[in-house]
Write a structure and sequence with these properties.
This protein is of the alpha+beta class and 350 residues long. The protein is built from twelve helices and nine strands. It is 41% helix and 18% strand. Helix 1 runs parallel beside helix 4. The structure holds phenylalanine.
């Protein structure tokens, strides 16, 4: 093997050993660079005769081209290998299941609230909403529960700084303040008619929303929902409450033979007062009495605080627990599940 052949061979070998493009460029410099071995051979021709230069030059050129070809081949091989690695690293597994767009849904208690509004809406009830941070006046005093009334201790709540008895100072313990708020608005709207001795359209409203008490166990949460109901007119009686509420419960639970019981009770803002219990005739809860609401005929002092004459206007109110209705409807036995935010639980209601 002549000197040029072995030069080509050692170049080819060195290129083959170059594992990275940077190594390869260093190897190239050793042969084709400014002071590389091929360049040195060219420089060495200076002393040769013209004839010798011709043949020697041609031979060196052949070797040079062979080295360049080896270099190009190796460059290509390294680039191919690099591409293969990259493709492998970025490979997509087309057999993986697609990422689904999460489908949202309503919270079970929201579903209940919608259901309640739909049913009472069909019975001609408006829907009103009011503040969760309430004043002492609306939450207690206007509802015939003055300061020092023992019933206040059953409504232990959270107080906010800076409030006064008439400015917001507590988290409402029930939705009953909405009885006053809504009635006052209603009366204001019909003031002229009332002053002229004309009839006022009846007040018929429900008021759903969040309420708060210092209470926490499997059936009590410091935040819970209530839905108030109020019907005031010139001739509204307890009988109407019974009809309306029975209708509501039977529709809500889709159970025509459901039975109601009005159990005497006490609330400062109603007189007489009753707890409403329901009893299913079939299903897993059949035969048990289950408490679902407080109710009663609106107390004359409360009617007066609405701006109406209790000698003329009368009616009933009720307050029910949508959380409890949701538990009964779906057979859930721990209230806290509703507020833990566990998607595995909540997604079952969609
Ligand atoms: N506000 C009462 C409670 O939270 C329920 C109720 C509402 C009772 C309306 C009578 C009339 O317990």
């Amino acid at each position: 093997m002549n000197e040029l052949d072995s030069l080509v061979e050692s170049a080819t070998q060195l290129f083959a050993q170059s594992a990275t493009p940077a190594d390869l460029e260093n190897a190239k410099a050793q042969f084709l660079g400014k002071s590389g071995r091929v360049t040195e051979l060219m420089k060495g021709m200076a002393q040769l005769s013209v004839e010798e230069k011709k043949s020697r030059g041609a031979a060196i050129n052949v070797a040079k081209q062979a080295i360049e070809a080896a270099l190009t081949a190796r460059r290509q091989a390294l680039a191919d290998a690099e591409l293969q690695l990259q493709l492998k690293a970025e490979a997509l597994d087309v057999s993986l299941p697609g990422r689904q767009r999460g489908q949202g849904g309503l919270h079970p208690v929201s579903l209940t609230l919608e259901r309640i509004q739909g049913i009472f809406g069909s019975m001609g009830f408006d829907v009103a909403e009011g503040p969760e941070i309430e004043s002492d006046w609306f939450n207690f005093t206007a509802l015939n529960t003055p300061e020092d009334h023992p019933a206040r201790s059953m409504h232990d709540t959270f107080y906010v700084e800076g409030g006064t008895a008439t400015a917001p100072n507590l988290l409402r313990t029930h939705t009953s303040p909405m009885q006053i708020r809504h009635a006052v608005q209603h009366v204001k709207k019909h003031r002229a008619a009332l002053d002229a001795g004309q009839a006022m359209p009846e007040i018929r409203v429900i008021a759903p929303g969040r309420t708060y008490r210092v209470d926490s166990d499997a059936t009590h949460s410091p935040m819970f929902h209530q839905c108030e109901g109020l019907w005031i007119g010139e001739n509204v009686s307890f009988k109407d409450l019974k009809v309306i509420f029975t209708d509501f419960c039977r529709t809500f639970f889709e159970s025509d033979d459901l039975v109601l019981r009005f159990r005497p009770s006490f609330f400062p803002f109603t007189e007489p007062s009753a707890e409403i219990d329901i009893q299913f005739q079939t299903g897993p809860l059949a035969g048990r009495w289950l408490e679902v609401a407080g109710s009663g005929q609106v107390h004359p002092n409360v009617v007066r605080n609405m701006g109406l004459d209790p000698e003329k206007y009368i009616g009933f109110a009720f307050g029910m627990g949508p959380d409890r209705l949701t538990m009964l409807r779906y057979g859930v036995n721990d209230l806290r599940l509703f507020f833990d935010g566990d998607i595995r639980f909540l997604s079952q209601f969609q």
